[in-house]
Write a sequence for this structure.
């Protein structure tokens, strides 16, 4: 409330409202002006009611917010007047206390329900739980808490306390490509080409006959005694992808 001033036969009462230390915003519908009556003491002198609520934000959402109204009063003793009040909107102090008590109880119930929902969500989805979703489902849009994708392009491995590689959670390892050593490839051999034969007789004449065709080229007819193979290679050992 600021100091009133007079302009002719009117009295102007400026009202300054700010949200300093206001923890929760609210919608303002009415402003009441109180006066000091010599006989009755403090009385509600008048009420200003607006057609659309004015939202008063909290101090944290809108620091330094303020609003000012000028209430103009003009009174005269020459023309008596009557005030008609619709009793539909009036309540006594007992009804007001009951109503505000019900509102307070409802707010407490809502807070309690929110806490129970959070407890239930924590029980169903504790921090660290791993879930798989299909079809592009985003849990951040439908579930409580903050969710992060993990193991992109990877696979999950369960904990194995008996082994050193994955004996605790959040260990990682593995390779996309592995080059096998000779010890790791399967044991095998390769037969030599059909043109690569050896003589088993000590005398080549006993193993081949050389003739000359009409073009002067020599043909070799070989009596094959055996066919050779390469030496076995590879040991069929296991390889690790870790």
């Amino acid at each position: 409330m600021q100091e009133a001033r007079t302009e002719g036969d009117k009295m102007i009462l400026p009202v300054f409202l700010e949200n300093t230390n206001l923890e929760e915003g609210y919608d303002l519908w009415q402003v009441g002006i109180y006066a000091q009556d010599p006989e009755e003491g403090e009385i509600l002198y008048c009420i200003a009611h607006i057609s659309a609520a004015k939202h008063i934000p909290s101090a944290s959402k809108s620091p330094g917010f303020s609003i000012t109204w000028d209430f103009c009063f003009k009174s005269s003793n020459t023309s008596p007047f009557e005030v008609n009040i619709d009793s539909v909107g009036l309540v006594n102090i007992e009804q007001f206390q009951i109503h505000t008590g019900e509102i307070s109880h409802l707010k407490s119930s809502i807070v309690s329900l929110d806490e129970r929902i959070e407890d239930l969500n924590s029980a169903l989805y504790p921090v660290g739980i791993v879930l798989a979703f299909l079809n592009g489902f985003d849990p951040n849009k439908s579930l409580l808490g903050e969710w992060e994708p993990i193991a992109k392009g990877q696979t999950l491995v369960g904990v194995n306390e008996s082994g050193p590689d994955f004996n605790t959670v959040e260990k990682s390892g593995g390779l996309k490509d592995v080059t096998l050593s000779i010890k790791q490839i399967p044991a095998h051999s390769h037969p030599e080409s059909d043109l690569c034969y050896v003589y088993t007789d000590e005398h080549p004449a006993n193993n081949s006959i050389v003739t000359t065709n009409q073009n002067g080229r020599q043909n070799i007819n070989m009596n094959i005694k055996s066919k050779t193979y390469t030496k076995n290679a590879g040991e069929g050992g296991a390889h690790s992808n870790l």
